[in-house]
Amino acid sequence: GGLDSQGNGILFATYHMLVSAKSEARQRTAPVTVDNSRLAQMIEWLGGRKAAGLVTFDEAHKAKNTGSFEALGASKTGLAVVELQQSCPGVGCLYASATGATEIKHLGYMERLGLHGA
SS3 letters for 1-42? Predict the structure, then answer.
């Protein structure tokens, strides 16, 4: 991971960064996947399945479309937020947003809350 020898570190990232490709992937025409994305680098930096600590999602409403419901198309951002949580099950998640949800399905990215039977 990218943490120091005692497991400390801070990474600031934008939602756009979660869905962007690594620099070498940008030079190819292949679509961005979990494996060739900045998301993969973040998961590795955190320690993946062994990760601990806290991930804070500020302006979390930007991840509202996770595709958890058939009628709702999934956004790249929503899928990336869910993938980060699933790939790092030991981290705590803090969801912060001043924008209210109009429907429970818009909270699908908040997997750790167990709102959808997860």
Answer: CCCCCCCCCCCCCCHHHHCCECHHHHCCCCCCCCCCEHHHHH
- Report d(CA 32, CA 30) in Å as an integer: 7
- The ranges of the chain with pLDDT < 70 are 1-2, 23-34, 67-72, 115-118
Q: What is the dihedral of CA 23, 26, 32, 36, to 10 degrees?
A: -30
Task: Give the global pTM.
Answer: 0.80
Contacts of 118 (CB under 8 A, 6+ apart): 111
- Whole-Å CA distances, 69 to 15, 73, 75, 106, 107: 22, 8, 12, 10, 11
Measure the CA–CA gap between 38 and 21, rounded to whole angstroms: 6
- Would you state the pLDDT for residue 113? 82
CB atoms within 10 A of CB 30: 10
Our measurement of the distance from residue 63's CA atom to the centroid of its chain's CA atoms, rounded to an integer in Å, reads 8
Measured between alpha carbons, how far is 95 from 61 in angstroms, rounded to an integer? 9
